[in-house]
């Protein structure tokens, strides 16, 4: 990826302080080297651009889109934790308190993004700088604030209480109450994203050095995602889902599936480094060999066969494996099973694992490991980033959200579903139902931040899914790719209470500091 340009400013976590950054790094590289004050800042276009760069600093935080938010994804029936860990087990078993180190920082970190956005929205409008840069920076601030509130609302808000709304208009207050309903948050998110869509350019107009910034299509996509959540409380929002999906399709940026009529490689290639900014890209966690998400190495074999420091988390289940239809090329692109041939550090080999709890490994993010380790991986195995961006929303999600919106309105979603199925090498279906839609989302997005747990929760299917144990394959010789196996239980059935566990506990320290109540039941 290429995100190189001079970057040296990021908004500090507290107040309106500013941190200086070194030159010749990507705009997501935010290593403090000095400081300046609010009084002598906010003068030039460069100041505004560097302030916007600070909105993306969380891309390099393991507690966000490395492993942090993936602990919530890991609650689904698609995977198990992979390693013994009491804190992550408590999350998966819905017995967490919110104080666990695995999940006790995301809440406040999203508010740090919001605080940085609020500072920009306070200061930049009065700056005497070019309109193009001013609009883009303000658009980025509105987008990233809406994006941060989207995840907060999805994970912590419901019909009993939203999450505190802090904007540039009320940011000087000392305390902020929880709104009566999360719909107040969703309305704020929509307002921010609409502003962002008006102000941001199409991603196709960005120079190579600016790829990865918020863009118009990303704003429309998160508007669709916001209304997808909102439709749980207001069925009129299904039409809005369809509308905003169409706005992505018709924006003029050429968003489309990677589909060259070669299903054996097309889906797999979505997760190639050279396709970080393909036609399917909408918004991703920007990564490189020094900064970004560590998720690919987190999923790689624990200790990496002595070749690289894989961490060995998040093992696919037999239930996920069996969810794929016969002939679906997405299964082999998503999951490695014993005996599969793959390339590791330039050498062809057959997959086996002495460490996998299920006999499987996610294959989706293995592209950086095909090459010599020095080519696309951070040499620091304790911070194993790679050159592969991690998708947060891609065009397949636009198609399947639209299909869901249509089906929920009693209309036909076949065309959108079949475009996704065709790319996977599957036959078209007619009269697609919600059951078809649910199966398609599971097969398409397994192991991604477009996560099945959130889908199961909003569909009302989580309790039934989690009442069944998770199973894996236990091989007779775990060092032999061809060894026989038996199916065993790897995680017991779990009790999911839909009136409690549809949201997560807010970390107790944040409750105390903000003087707000916990989510009911936690």
UniProtKB/TrEMBL annotation:
Which InterPro entries does its entry note? SusD-like_N (IPR033985), SusD_RagB_dom (IPR012944), TPR-like_helical_dom_sf (IPR011990)
Any matching Pfam family: SusD-like_3
Assigned keywords, A-Z: Cell outer membrane, Membrane, Signal
Q: Where in the cell is it found?
A: Cell outer membrane
Q: Which GO terms describe its cellular component?
A: cell outer membrane
Domain RagB/SusD, by residue range, is 320-522
Q: Which PROSITE patterns does the record match to this protein? A: PROKAR_LIPOPROTEIN
Coarsely, its chief localization is membrane
Residue limits of the SusD-like N-terminal domain? 99-227
What family, per the record?
Answer: Belongs to the SusD family.
Q: What is this protein called?
A: RagB/SusD family nutrient uptake outer membrane protein
Task: Give the originating organism.
Answer: Sphingobacterium haloxyli
